[in-house]
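Need the bound structure for iron/sulfur cluster, inputs here:
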Amino acid sequence: MNEEKKIIHYDALVVGGGIAGGEAALNLANSGYRVLLVEKERSLGGKMILLSKVFPTLDCSACITTPKVSEIARHKNITIFTESEVTTIDKRSENDFVAQITKKPRYVHVEDCTACQLCEQACPVSVRDEYQQGLIGRKAAFIPFSIANPKAAAIDIENCTLCGACEKVCPTHCIDFTMQPEQFELHARTVVMATGFNLFDPLEIPRYGYGQHKNVITSMQMEREIAPTRPFNTILRPGDGKVPDKIAYVLCAGSRDASVGNPICSQICCMYSIKQAQLLMGALPMADVTIYYINIRSFGKGFEEFYQQAKGMGVSFVKGKIGTIKEKENGNLILRYEDISEGVVKEAEHDMVVLSVGVKSNPDAGKIFPQGALKLDPHRFVAQTDLMGSPAKTSIDGVFVAGTASAPMDIPDSILSAGSASSEAISYIKQHQEA
Ligand SMILES: Cc1cc2nc3c(=O)[nH]c(=O)nc-3n(C[C@H](O)[C@H](O)[C@H](O)COP(=O)(O)OP(=O)(O)OC[C@H]3O[C@@H](n4cnc5c(N)ncnc54)[C@H](O)[C@@H]3O)c2cc1C
Ligand code: SF4
Ligand code: SF4
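Answer from helper R.:
Posting the output first, comments after.
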């Protein structure tokens, strides 16, 4: 550990570099404020940078995210710390928030890395690729994904055997195993919490067979399979690499289910499943896609039309509650479900099942502040203390919340929420300028 703590000053600290944090940082920076954007992953972009296309417009997600992320990365008023953790934030006065930040070593000097991938090719260690949701492997020396920002190699030190093969081939000698964690004490005048959401872990519902049946995957895995930066050149079921021709979606997997501690509606799963079904119909024109749902909640602008469009394309919608998913010897899956319209239990065979996993809160937000200072709502999202008047306000004056850190929401709402948080943060800075 590099013991020397660096003291740094910025106008605003934004915690979380997803679309909401990025947007909030841009707004603050465009208004002339100096922003430190802290992201715990190796790239900016949050979940959005991993998506295929977006509902309801079917615009390419990467085509929207990558220019925005580049704008953030190049902005003269924004400093970015990736692979960094804000461990605590103390409010010392109305305009002095003091944050302790640890920047983990990447073991690569990013400014010198050309992303040539020679280290990746030389590295003998293969591990699960978390950015491709475990569908393929990656090396211990690796570029997180093709549109990552920063686009530079990183060394996964936990799996690295220190064989030195990557160092030997690196043409710019930018791999450095002597790098140490760096400690920073940041003084900021305001804070935006944009720590996003976690996905529901489908292992919590064993009767769906996730983790046991190889052809039961999550919606995020399917998102990767249909993305332009996908792991394979077509849609494959992971069990045997077969192109599926009868795909089922199970909606509300871990949403609206008090028995798994998540009684809330995740708001996005109906629509992202309908989106994926439409994309699958395009990618695999001969495939049957069936969506098992409890209710379809197509409440947003253009959503109902999007739903009707999927029906028109031939996606089947079955009002049914899934009881169990069993695996046959050939890897196909038998779904036993209650047909809600007919009130009878039925079975159906599919060769791939996608669990439309729900949204859970990210507990990080509450942990950063002294015990109980940042109030959480009953579902452990950041509480909005003036929901109707000023939805970005939190229980700490000067700390604002953006995007899914406060509740499940889609991308347009996350961007709107970030706009609200950044303008509140600017007002707050101005109000306490003289203090
Ligand atoms: C399968 C799937 C498909 C989807 N499809 C669509 C779609 O088609 N259209 C649409 O509108 N929406 C879609 N969404 C929803 C969309 O992903 C979210 O609306 C959006 O990502 C929310 O952005 P965010 O910045 O609030 O959160 P996130 O994307 O979760 O970003 C939060 C960021 O904060 C970082 N972070 C977390 N904790 C810390 C910490 N302690 N310190 C530092 N950084 C931290 C995270 O690493 C992450 O980068 C989909 C979601 C899923 C799961
Ligand atoms: S030193 Fe580590 S990262 Fe580099 S090639 Fe060897 S195992 Fe891979
Ligand atoms: S670390 Fe070196 S070998 Fe690896 S991508 Fe960067 S420049 Fe290429």
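Comments: The chain has three domains: 7-103+181-196+362-431, 110-169, 200-359. The longest strand covers residues 316-327.
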